[in-house]
Amino acid sequence: MQLQSEFIEVEALPRHLPSVIEYDISGMNIGESVYVKDLDLSSEVTLISDENEFLVSVVKP
What we know:
With 61 residues, this protein is mainly beta. The protein is 0% helix and 21% strand.
């Protein structure tokens, strides 16, 4: 796994701000990537980061 970015920018009321966002990569294959647009955020959270921002990819060890 190659981590490109650890943080994304979002906007929400304090009670709706996620403390962590998890994404299961167990079903991904080598060469596949995760982008901000792939994250499942609640409707109360507005995404500020570019949706095409690269977060992580699966690479050979």
